[in-house]
Design a protein that fits this description.
The structure is a single chain. With 211 residues, the chain is an alpha/beta fold. It has a single domain, classed as Alpha/Beta hydrolase fold, catalytic domain (Rossmann fold, 3-Layer(aba) Sandwich), CATH 3.40.50. Helix content is 31%, strand content 21%. It is built from six helices and nine strands. Strands 3-5-4-6-7-8-9 form a seven-stranded mixed β-sheet, sandwiched between helices. A two-stranded antiparallel ribbon has the order 1-2.
């Protein structure tokens, strides 16, 4: 359980036993009112990929999801939940570099957290819901952005992302997973490969060497 602004947040922390932590990441889950939790398969695959790169990875349930205290707050309170999760990692690993990421609704939360927190070194956005939420904060935020989008996503369509993405500040990278729908059904391996391809070159060497 991680202390949060609305009470305790249920969380799962993956570490590398006996290894010095040089990279730590928070991964945010999709919309809690539509069944999103820290156990979502896309969130799990993103976390597993980051862990394979040597990171300590924290997945957590937003307020009101799973065993977390509180109630859904439309995104405002969930942003504070994500900030609390990041602060937990910062206190636990004071010498680490910090990344944040998220899938769908979680990508919106991660984007706003990264834009507001200068301590976030990189943000990872999987199927960001650009038609449902505002990503305007990324237009002036120079935090490096890694974006992965399925070409067959009918919830967060690729065409909508391609209209929004050019307005986001550099540096940024976009990977398209051919044929992947919103939940990357039968395309989780390709999702992991895309993330690894973009993130492995920028992961701290000490983290990669710990594998």
């Amino acid at each position: 359980m991680v202390p949060g602004p609305a009470g305790r947040l249920e969380a799962l922390l993956q570490e590398h036993e006996g290894k010095s932590v040089r990279l730590a990441a928070v991964v945010c889950h999709p919309h809690p009112l539509y069944g999103g939790t820290l156990h979502n398969k896309v969130v799990h695959r993103a976390a597993a990929t980051l862990h394979a790169l040597g990171a300590a990875v924290l997945r957590f349930n937003f307020r009101g999801a799973g065993k977390s205290d509180g109630w859904f707050d439309g995104g405002a309170g969930e942003l504070e939940d994500a900030r609390a999760a990041l602060e937990f990692l910062e206190a636990r690993y004071p010498d680490a570099r910090f990344w944040v990421g998220g899938f769908s609704f979680g990508a919106w939360i991660a984007a706003r957290l990264a834009a507001a927190d200068s301590g976030v070194e990189r943000v990872i956005l999987i199927a960001p819901p650009v038609t449902a939420q505002s990503f305007a904060a990324l237009r002036t935020a120079h935090v490096p952005k890694v974006v992965v989008q399925g070409t067959a996503d009918d919830v967060c369509p690729l065409a909508a992302l391609e209209r929004e993405y050019p307005s986001w500040a550099e540096p940024k990278q976009l990977a398209r997973v051919e044929g992947a729908n919103h939940f990357f059904d039968r395309k989780l391996s390709e999702l992991g490969e895309a993330l690894q391809r973009m993130l492995e070159p920028v992961a701290p060497p000490s983290s990669r060497d710990s594998l």
